[in-house]
Amino acid sequence: MKGFSYYTCADLSSATRALQELKGAAVKAGGTDLMDLLKERRLEPTDVVSLHAVKQVAVKGELSALATLQDVADSAWVKENFPAVHTAAAEAATPQIRNVGTVGGNLCQHSRCVYFRNRNFDCHATGGEGCPALDENAFHRYHAIFRGTHCVSAHTSNLAPALMAVGAQAHCLHPDGERTLDIGLLYDLNPAQGKPNHLTLRPGELIRAVQLKPTPLARNSIYVEFRERQSFDFAVASVAAAVHVEGGKVRQARIVCGAVAPIPYRARAVEDAMIGKALDPAKAAAAVVADAQPLAGNQFKVVILKRLVQRALEGLKA
Description:
It contains 13 helices and eleven strands. It has about 325 residues and is of the alpha+beta class. The strands form three sheets. The chain has a four-stranded antiparallel beta sheet with strand order 4-7-5-6. A four-stranded antiparallel beta sheet has the order 8-9-10-11, with helices on both faces. A hairpin with a 2-residue loop joins strand 5 and strand 6. The radius of gyration is 19 Å and the shape is globular.
């Protein structure tokens, strides 16, 4: 691991100023993703800004970005009003990681693509040309089936699809002020060359909190995923779905898929087609995967995703 200077900030405002002044500095909350990147030397910052001394707010109305996944899983308010978010947090990783991993860190984690993580390869995200995962003999079992222009990595956040499905928003803090974004707008499918993640956060900007509003849609939500090892693993594919049904007809619907695209994949066309009709899980599931472009080594993901979408929608109140 390359040496670096370590700064501890007492609040988020001072952290954003430090990140803006220390060009290229990394931010550390729980550190579960950052430590891997430092040890792998995929990130080699000269400065690290720590948030461990920043006090978090209660988990109600807003989820502090520094709330742990276990904090979210333990919240009766989240469980009652946002079941998809509760399940996504409660089933993430392992108990050890859930007790240190944060909401903000889960939303902002870097790609787990084996080529991005390996310093012996260059890709668009590290300033290189092309995508090694697209080579004929590449290993792409865990890559995307809905592609970006330059990247076929799979977005691994558990919380992002669930938060998108329930209509959550992110409050982002910058030295120049605060702004509020829908969770989906935190991500850019085609970031600039040399940008190591798909985040739209500006230099020095941090997620302060996630705003959650109880709605009929959010209360009728669900999160399901498939992992090769149930005890701990990143999802091979995941689905967060939410529907609001009145009089036997769908009035509002959201279907967001994880681990199948470089960013959370929202099936907007399928959602629109569901409005005004009776809920038909099998038809919707087939439509979600209709535009998939799997690679030679991950065609199985199409089948898994289709079945997860159908299972999720069948688990909702119709």
